[in-house]
């Protein structure tokens, strides 16, 4: 799968759920490239902004879209990576602030 195909597929499914790609396509495509690299490396698309262990079950919380996306977007308008954002974040009507890591320290290997 190439980046454009992944973009179109995820855009359709995730926008229906109220999650939008970062309007900066360069950032978005770089993150999507990271997802594809991780899929090739580990066999699953884990978050490109976090270190994966290679154990699918251990990394289930960071398999994109990660379980932290919904609370991140709800609270900050963006997920940790800035891949998925709210409409308001893209429009600039909410501040673009640092999204802190929610993954528990015990999950880092």
Question: What do you see in this structure?
Answer:
By secondary structure, this protein is mostly helical. The chain has four helices and two strands. The chain has a two-stranded antiparallel sheet with strand order 1-2. Helix 1 crosses helix 2. The chain is globular, with a radius of gyration of 13 Å.
List the helices and strands and how they pair.
Blueprint lengths: L2 H13 L4 E2 L3 H18 L26 H8 L7 E2 L1 H5 L18
Antiparallel strand pairs: 1-2
Helix pairs in contact: 1-2
Instruction: Assign a percent range to the helix content.
Output: 40-55%
Which structural class matches the secondary elements?
mainly alpha
The separation of the N and C termini measures: 29 Å
Q: List unreliable stretches of 5+ residues.
A: none
Approximate shape: globular
Count every beta strand, where a strand is a DSSP E run of 2 or more residues: 2
Q: β content, as a range?
A: under 5%
Main sheet summary: 2 strands, antiparallel
User: What is the count of DSSP helices, taking H or I runs of 4+ residues?
Assistant: 4
In sequence order, what are the helices and strands, one letter per element?
Answer: HEHHEH
> Residue-averaged pLDDT, rounded?
96
Please compute the radius of gyration using only Cα atoms.
13 Å
Going across the biggest sheet, name each strand in turn.
Answer: 1-2
